[in-house]
Design goal:
Length: 244
């Protein structure tokens, strides 16, 4: 059961993403509280991720000016890179290093505005303290629960999230038009439910203030204008690796 548990845990990332956009709940403080809990569970401080994600929305696929922070992690262009990418090893290494660096007061990323830097650092320090407390309690109680019910399932689930996220912009043109630089992937209702309707990704990037539950309606309005679509994630990855 660790594999389905891991998929459910790691795909909480999509709920964190929605909390950043403040669409799941009417209350701002509930969105922020849920975001903090999820960020703690998946080792991604929401204060930092909010700055990262807003920069990604403003400068999607902006390769010329290097303003899209998502482009810092290069997309795989060989079988070896593809395997390493899907393993999630670079993601875990980057996220854990980021938390430690922020907690220690290290240099901030350029997309983190001055007014947010203090909060970003404080949240990272709180995360580190929380993890230290959990480790200490586990050692004191001689318990391995957090390993088998949390950490190992996350490792098992990460490749599925990596495969999902690659379809959002992988092989899309480096242009400013959201209809070109983002992909909508047609998939099952289960995947759309798990990912909070984010497979409608072109729609989301074109109108990010539209809440997740209205994206199917927006899709029906925009579908004739969509330029980058794919019929399922298996077909996307089959096409992606065929170009290696």
């Amino acid at each position: 059961m660790m594999l389905p548990l891991g998929i459910l845990l790691i795909f909480l990332f999509t709920l964190l993403h929605e909390c950043i956009h403040e669409t799941p709940f009417r209350s701002r403080w509930i969105n922020r509280t849920v975001g903090i809990v999820i960020g703690f569970l998946i080792f991604l401080p929401p204060a930092w991720f909010c700055c990262f994600h807003m920069a990604h929305h403003r400068h999607t696929q902006d390769q010329d000016r290097d303003n899209d922070p998502e482009l810092d992690a290069k997309k795989p262009e060989s079988w070896m890179q593809y395997g390493i990418y899907l393993s999630g090893i670079p993601t875990w290494y980057s996220q854990l290093l980021k938390i430690v660096r922020l907690a220690m007061g290290g240099p901030m990323d350029g997309f983190v505005p001055g007014r947010a830097q203090k909060g970003v650092g404080q949240q990272a320090r709180l995360f580190v303290v929380g993890y230290a407390i959990l480790i200490a309690l586990s050692i004191f109680q001689n318990s391995t629960v957090i390993i088998w019910a949390w950490l190992v399932p996350l490792i098992f689930g990460q490749p599925f999230l990596r495969a999902y996220l690659l379809a959002e912009h992988g092989r899309c043109p480096y242009v400013s038009n959201m209809l070109d630089n983002t992909r909508t992937t047609f998939t099952s209702g289960i995947v759309r439910y798990l990912a909070w309707n984010m497979p409608y990704h072109t729609e989301h990037h074109s109108y990010p203030v539209v809440p997740f539950h209205k994206l199917p309606v927006l899709h029906n309005i925009m579908k004739k204008n969509l330029r980058n679509t794919e019929d399922g994630f298996v077909r996307f990855h089959t096409d992606y690796v065929s170009r290696f």
